[in-house]
Write a structure and sequence with these properties.
By secondary structure, the chain is of the alpha+beta class. It contains 2 helices and 11 strands, in the order αβββββββββαββ.
Length: about 170
Amino acid sequence: MMKRWIFYLIVFLQILFLSLMSISFYVMDAMGETIKLETAPVDPRDPFYGDYVALSYEIEQIPEDQWAVEKELDRGERVFLLLESNSKGIYELVEASKIWKEAEENQTVLRARYQWYDEINKTYQVDIGLNRYFIEENTGEFYEERIGESVVEIVIAPWGHKKIASLEEGTE
């Protein structure tokens, strides 16, 4: 009898976990903060996943003067990016650190993972985890030809998860 209850409890917890994961994805739209970042698309096609745009963000290349980390980091360690909105509504990097900074008005904090230090360009590389944006089938060439630099709208949930909401043509 006890084994049956444990089995039902485990099944219930799995269903609860999957339900909460699904719900949290949609709650992000209602409760999350939306920001825009400038980016450059690359590689429009993958034979297994379909069309997508590979994205890299300017905020992922951090100059030494904006790197506020005192000790050397291992690849994959968490870094917090303090971002601030400019006059166009695009968020730009203020500072990267190992400590969560309280954001003021027009600022937000984005989690990233440290990748490596580029000695040639004197920049620190981080990954914000939003480097692929899947698009409709056979539209990859459109993005490749028409969008030089684009703006990505990202939703950041209060609990730190983030997702790409849209990919827009550049503002220039």
